[in-house]
Amino acid sequence: MHQIRKYFSFNFILFASFLLLLSSCSLFGDKKNNTVDDVFKQGSIDPNLVPNNVSYVPLYPFITNVRNPLDVFVGYDDLIYIVADNDENNLNDNEVLVYDQKMSLVYRLNIFGATDITQDRRLHTYIAGRYYTDDTRTTHLAAVYHIELLAAGTPKFTDTLTHFTCDESRTNTSFRGADDIAVQFTGLATLWDNTLYVSRTGPRNDQSSIARPDNGVLVFDAAGTNIGFTTNLNPNQSSLKSSVGISGIASLAGPPQRLSGISTSRNLFLTLADQNTPLEYRALSIVATDDPDQGIIFGENASFLNFDVTKANRFMYESFRFGKPEDIYVAPDATGYIFVTDSEKDSLFVFTNGGFEGVNPPANSTVKKQIIVSFGGSGTDGNGSGPFNLINPSGVCYYNRSVFVCDKGNNRVCRYRLNTDLQ
What we know:
Elements: H1 2-24, H2 34-42, E1 56-58, E2 63-64, E3 69-74, E4 80-85, E5 94-99, E6 105-110, E7 116-119, E8 125-132, E9 140-148, E10 156-162, H3 178-181, E11 184-190, E12 196-201, E13 216-220, E14 226-229, E15 246-250, E16 268-272, E17 283-291, E18 295-300, E19 325-330, E20 338-342, E21 347-351, E22 375-376, E23 393-399, E24 402-407, E25 412-418
Antiparallel strand pairs: 1-25, 2-25, 3-4, 4-5, 5-6, 7-8, 8-9, 9-10, 11-12, 12-13, 13-14, 15-16, 16-17, 17-18, 19-20, 20-21, 21-22, 23-24, 24-25
């Protein structure tokens, strides 16, 4: 009897230990385990591509076979939204592709002329595209589609902000024909309170007119009402507060969803890609100041002119630093890194929130300056498709320490992470 009890006791301990092992899940991959969950999020990393120095490394899988990706945004719902221009000669083929965190396609939606996408904290999606104004489908104007339930696969079109009627300064002005048709909405960004920024370009930029200049940023509240415009930005000339040919816009608020800690700043960042105007500064930090008489005033951020060579070797506000920057995104976490894609230089540039190029050195490093981690280039043959090659990069975003880049010329969306964040 003693042996039977001993045998039973021993096996009960083994069984209990096995159950404990299952529940702790370090061997069986329960997603509740933080370490295993982090491995899932990181994706596959080629150890041969992880250098000893600080740099970004590719996270696989990349999202491939995406025809001419224009923009990418990882939403508050953790889904990855990509705008693809499947046929550059046919606006009807533009679509939004929705992927999960495993990089699996879960939904797709055609949006006429789609170019840019973002999402607010209500999980409402905004897509910049074009909108037909007549039954003959011959005239189309810039538009922003406001959509609910896109992630669920049952999109509900809540509203459409259409040029020129969405601009409250155009209430008493009529259709301008070819000039209004030429206007484009080129970027979208949302704030913590679901305010929407829409960047705009176009040919009419008379600052003395009652109607606002085409070059600038429209501001909408959560209900879609036009409540402001970047009146103080210069729509015609190069300066630290220029709005000539805006190609991308970013705010300081962004996913993931959280109850506290999200930025309540109304500051914004712009990229200017216009090739017809010699622009000394093409990536700009714009400061929003609340004036009791004039409301929100948007102006320059002169602090970015601090070229402290004891802290960095290169700077965002160096003269003619960029060729044709397409997009900009600001990390909403403690790093505050600024990411800029440049299609002329086939590169991704990374700056600190003070405009210094590079990232902070590791805590135990003897290096005291920012470490430059910008990368790209199409290779010596101009057709590089390696993991660090970029051809005509367009949209960029950041989520969970990872950078997503639309590598337009290689028909893919790439994902990278600092090797210091892999430990």
